[in-house]
Fold these 4 entries.
Entry 1:
Amino acid sequence: MHEFQKTYAYRPEINYRGSIKLLARVINEQKERYTVQTIYGARPAVVKGKLRHDASSREDFPSVGDWIVLKQNNPHDVLIIDELLPRFSSIVRKADELETNAQILASNVTKVFIVLSLEEKINVRKLERFLVTVWESGASPIIILSKADLVEDLEATKQKIDQVALGIPVLAWDAVNKIGKEEIRNTIHVDDTIVLIGNSGVGKSTLINHLLGKEMLKTQAVRDSDKRGRHTTTHRELFRLPEGGVIIDTPGMRSFLLWAGEESGLSHTFSDIQMLIEKCRFNDCLHDTEPDCAVKEALAAGELEKERWDSYVKLQKELAYLERRQNARLAAEEKKKWKKATMQHRMR
């Protein structure tokens, strides 16, 4: 393996067999203008030609973390991205409330640091949303509790998170007293691509600066009036860690919409509920009026929190709705594609 590939956490799953001179990794993306890392250094790049023509959705364009093939590698020109190599994982969310489009936050990720600030009350329901997406992506989640100096009973907070995390590592980090950095650093291997996700102002950029050992990213305090974070990071960017591995910073997310097709992520996140469902007498149990329903029995006994069950049902309905919307969109796109092909054929 070339030193460039080792430095930027290339993994065998990418399976590139072409010239090393044409291989690159996307390290920055801003409005379809990219910065890519090559064996000759970081260079500006754009998508043109067949790759752009064949793209039918945002997912078909490169995102930060992607490995790509260049059309050429002329040191004096803006590079052209010729091919997007297959992803082995991607962190995807719904772009916004109105559109049925996906937004890829990062690609070819091995671990996701979900950063939660202890300066404010932990939103367990939002954490569940994060976990559904991460488990579906193929990456492994790690929960980072930032600003640990601001909570009186850290262990009690960890135990509360553990009830949702279900075995996921939960690490505390205190930037003021520099506690927890080594424990976090020890979770990162030389071939890891890490991405940080979380609300604005939870300390993602500060954590990256500490792991990099220098001030690469601007940071701001949250507003005192409402404890809402300010958007310090405005785009996604990949950095090389000094001890190996790479890390991706992302803008803060005040809302996090699921993307269709995340049913396995839902089952993994709510594995406790999934086990109960499997114990129900009937395979098609609706957990309403049916006899011998393990879910109803657990709710009645206090073994399953009603809020957690309600969250599971809500996310399940959200995914089902997205699935219907996405299928309709794909059908419309397919119809549009064939109509265009027919028109081109008639013009010959």
Entry 2:
Amino acid sequence: MTGQFAIALDAMGGDRAPEMVVKGANIARQRFPQVHFLFFGDEQRVKPLLDKYRALAKVSTIHHTDQMVKGEDKPSTALRTGRSSSMRLAIDAVQSGDAAGVVSAGNTGALMAMAKVVLKTLPGITRPAIASFFPTLKGESVMLDLGANVQCDADNLVQFAVMGNVFARTVLGVVSPTMGLLNVGSEDMKGHEALREASALLRDFKLPGSFHGFVEGDDIAKGTVDVVVTDGFTGNIALKSIEGTAKLYAEFMRATFKSSFLSKLGYLLARPALNALRLRTDPRRYNGAIFMGLNGIAVKSHGGTDALGFSNAIGVAADMIMHRALARITEDFGNTNTAAVSRPQAAEL
């Protein structure tokens, strides 16, 4: 997509909303001057913040609502009582065509439920998946599903691979992505039937890039493939394990440098390198999980992020919009010889 387009923002979603949302939009505005921002939230709280950024205010519109989805609300409750909430109205803006995408740092379950009900799924997609990207030894990779579907059949996994392939091309800029199915081993006979069936299907799919085959847990950080495909149960555990390990090593390093005078002196000498490492692994750089497979761009920001992190979530949405991600997914399915088979719906988290 070229020219101007609008992105709807749930101004009340997130631990530090609406301040974080407005500041994040101002950062994103500098990178994406063609974006018009639609803020959905309490005008009495949003407008004073927006007035601090004149350039942002000129490309923004506030849609007032004093209702919001709370973090503890169940998806069913949010669907039933949140029709006038900031989250729902922002999603509605995408469905009506007033916005090309929506970004929220609010309740994940509610956002997924609302987005699926309002936006529906793309042709050929039976289950949407949560996708996000992270640093690896070779650069960056995308992994999906990260929690939307506990159980998946072979067709679901194939659909995830197609959508992950598009994500790698549009957001990560990989021209010919490599794809792999997360498994307990790399041998063809390893894994359950759905994995083996999905592997056979993907070998015959005509997609940009190539299908690597099965990958193991340590291949995620190695960057063995650009797209890691798995069910939501396994993907969510893998994601949380990666996050936990990163925090563990950061704490170990912090404690080590505080352990003695020489260690503190060593920290001063190593600080430039450590700052570069901190920047490389800063989770705010990789903020923004997208609900792939919906008939509309919907991005979930981490609820505890700051303005910089939220601006990067906006960036994910903008990249998907500008590079016609939804159209590419539809085109890729149209160019394949294998049609998705309708099967019983997988369980959700």
Entry 3:
Amino acid sequence: MWTNLSKPIIGLAPMDGITDAAFRETVDLISKPNILFTEFVPAEGVAHGATRLYSSLQKHKTTTPIVAQLFGVDPKAFYKAAVIVLELGFDGIDINMGCPDRNIMKKGGGASLINQRVLAATIIKAVKQAVKDWQNGKTLKSLSLRDEAFGWIERNKPLKVDRTYKPVSIKTRTGINQHDTVPWISTLLEVEPDAICIHARTFLQMYKGKADWDEIAKASLLTKGTNTLLFGNGDLNSVSQAKAHCKMYRCQGALIGRAALGNPWVFTNKSPLLSERFGTMLKHSKLYLKYRQKLKLFPMRKHLAWYCTGFAGSRILRDKLMKIESLVELKKLLIDFLNQPLKT
């Protein structure tokens, strides 16, 4: 998959609670990034058949590659979860080794794997073995899944499963309390992942301070001459900036994250009209309800607020959006805002 994409590869970064099926489809329809990632999904939950988590593994029909991201600590669960996401037709598997959420860290997952390098390597090997076994014909029936889980996967997987090789990648950070890029990335390279994406901050930084892309340049010296692609992430606001960083810091791609919030146009050079922005808010909300039919619009409110910045009256509109409960209310609110008389 990675080898078929022209370089540099510029994609949408995985973001917990954000890059769900509705958001990915919205971004893909509007600005067509080179690659998309799911929000991270717990490998243990997927493996144990917790179907309430499977909604995160819904996806739309597209020619854009979609990679499923997993997190957790149990190599056996990663193996089983990897087979499941492969059966669902994802184009690759990404392993989260960079999430700074303290609850996940306490359980040994996310960025805490930076300091558990034997376990990190074992998890990668387990996922790579799952890909190999799946290529050779391993099926869901061998996983001893609960009937409910088996049925959900059967209903949502492609009619024809493409058993070509699917790449395994890692999303991580430069260290825990300080940059530890060279020894950490060297450890990852020993087990030969297909790609490594580095958020150029430590765990301690969370999302604060400036992303240090010089650390990514250090990693590029390590990946040079290997079969592992290197991606950078952090403080990227446009495709042109991402491409410039790839050239300057010698990586094969970059992922854009927070700049896409309320801005699915980020992978284009377009600045949408207010009417187009509002139309996209409605379309995004409809997609959300399509994928999450048992839920209301409450979880969409954060997205609606992100759309409402940078224009006159946006603060007042945001306050009103935090109270809407249905598509009907949303549509009326946006129409009324567009039709209000201009202040002179």
Entry 4:
Amino acid sequence: MAVAEALDRLTPGDHAKRSALFSSGAEAVENAVKIARAFTGRDAVVAFDHAYHGRTNLTMALTAKSMPYKRGFGPFAPEVYRAPLSYPFRDGPGLDGAGAARRAIDVIEKQVGAADLAAVVIEPIQGEGGFIVPAPGFLPALRDWCAENGVVFVADEVQTGFARTGAMFACEHEGVVPDLIVTAKGIAGGLPLSAVTGRAEIMDAAHPGGLGGTYGGNPLACAAALAAIETIEAEGLVGRAREIERLVLNRLTELRRLDPRIGDVRGRGAMLAAELVKPGGERPDPASAAAVAATAHAQGVIVLTCGTYGNVLRFLPPLSAGDDLLHDAFDVLAEAFASTR
């Protein structure tokens, strides 16, 4: 009950809410889709290019990238459709957020149809897909279209939630209030807990016994969640994420000035990335990304790659990390870039 009350208080919007607790992010995403289908009486679900939503059957269907997440594991759940995301680095300067939203909505209306669509499921900032931050205006335009057409707008904040992006939830950066919001990962500091929180009338649509799980909302994970939320608030970790953003973006921008392989630097808060390309263009360079990551790892700094093309270096520093430690890490990263050039 205390965790549900905290989610009611913290998640965007002042409407009446309900929460259902589960164990993993993928499980929560699946249940969000079940709730949306029960509420609307419709079947179709739209996800986006470069999306990642989990490794269960339905969430694999929602996920865009084949290897390593989907290959050999089909067939996948039906009635899942894909729309183009706003990807500023690859869309080019001529397509702003509103234009990218019109492009996506046009695909949805032509290939699915609003009358058959239960939910639009989207990461406000994509995670495994490459830490892609949609252009301003993209998310609000999608949210408005969903509201106008009775489609449930589901924000997958499994990676972005709980202070990671310099707001408690990434939706808040553009004032977007989702119908359903999915949380996990940071909710309980690493213990297995996830949640779907949303408008009471939508959450109440599922019949009794239709939602649940053996370990969902277990007492240990709930205690951890309450402690994690208390720590985030008491230690000002939302503000700390914004401080990390300034430091890391400064270091990445300087690296970009020195190394033409860095085509784009992006992100929010302590969820940041550098996209590597062949110098002089936008052709992905996954080999360089892998080489830089391996070289940094050999010097004690763990850097992971991500993105549809495997050419993005992602940075998720602990919100408790001090500036000195971050500078030490990026000194190692600078050496890794220099030695692999």
